[in-house]
Amino acid sequence: MKGVLVILEYRGAWNRMSWEALAAGRGIAVQLHQPLFVAVAGAQLDTAVADLSALPLARAYAVRHSLLHEYTADGFIPAFEQLIHSLDPLLVFFPHTYQVRDFAPGLAARFDQTLIADVVAITTDSGHPVFVRQLLQGKLNADYVHTGAGVCFASLQAGAFRVDMPVGACAVEEFVPQLSPSQIRSQPGERFRESAQTVDLSAASLIVSVGRGIKEQDNIPIVRELADALGAELAASRPICDNGWLPMERQVGSSGQSVSPKVYIAVGISGAIQHLVGMKASKSIIAINKDENAPIFEVADYGIVGDLFEVVPALTAAVRKVKSA
Ligand SMILES: Cc1cc2nc3c(=O)[nH]c(=O)nc-3n(C[C@H](O)[C@H](O)[C@H](O)COP(=O)(O)OP(=O)(O)OC[C@H]3O[C@@H](n4cnc5c(N)ncnc54)[C@H](O)[C@@H]3O)c2cc1C
User: Fold this and answer.
1) From the CB of 289, is ligand 1 less than 6 Å away?
2) Strand 91-95 and strand 115-123: pairing?
3) Distance from the CA of 307 to the center of ligand 1, in angstroms?
4) What is the pLDDT of residues 300-319, one digit of tens each?
5) pTM of this structure
């Protein structure tokens, strides 16, 4: 029994990217006719175990040890190494989190493998997985194929895979790794805390997002009115937040929030890769841009080529009319 193993991240709460990695793992497991496994490491995993038992998996593994209470690469690498040796899967997937960046290359090295990091897409047309990574700030896509024997390790970029997990049931197996205190050479410091966010865009089901096409801060209300009429959250591309036209917490993208609303309306946003990675998991994308060749149209489900200063007020009026009817 080979299979696809997805290593999830749980530190008292799930890292949202875990579910994206799981969705990717599930897609590949189905295509390759392989069983799907997940694993999570820690000391207090009761809530995590309850969550995992409601997923449609071949099996979940709770890798539990008191020395895994705090994350250290010293503990996580040998713990997952032992699990992978006992399971012997074909593929091991991770969400590309900061924690994974820290330990996954070392884990792969224990198996004489490299980590195919920050993957944005996977195809199996040729019967084996082909991993797509972006090079040169997204200007080039490169295909990576695992050759040779042994397990293949890949981490998956935030926002690249749409979370779509049906409810199910699976057995959760306890896996107690052999660890000794002398192995844990690093001392975890205080956990990094991101600045408190008053806006959780990741929970929004409707987002209207504004980009540099808006020209100046005084024009922002044009887009805010559309958001208000729709009952949507207002978000922005980076230059808008860098300029202080909207607060930083409304920024979407690789250095902002990752969002996956039902509808994402991009207004005057070109579609730079750093913006796309934060919003391309949206279920439906509508782009308004006066440049018909803007890259945003490549990911858009609906596109309006036009001047936002004409299109947006007309849309707002139409929405208000429908809502008041
Ligand atoms: C390390 C790094 C991290 C980054 N992180 C992020 C991030 O998290 N989020 C992010 O968004 N960016 C990020 N960026 C910046 C990113 O590369 C782009 O510069 C940025 O996304 C561009 O924002 P924009 O689309 O609003 O502006 P532009 O690229 O300037 O696009 C403006 C668009 O508006 C259109 N337009 C102009 N006038 C009108 C009009 N009247 N009507 C309709 N359309 C009009 C234009 O055709 C154009 O397509 C990052 C960059 C780096 C290097």
Assistant:
1) yes
2) unpaired
3) 16
4) 999 999 999 999 999 999 99
5) 0.68
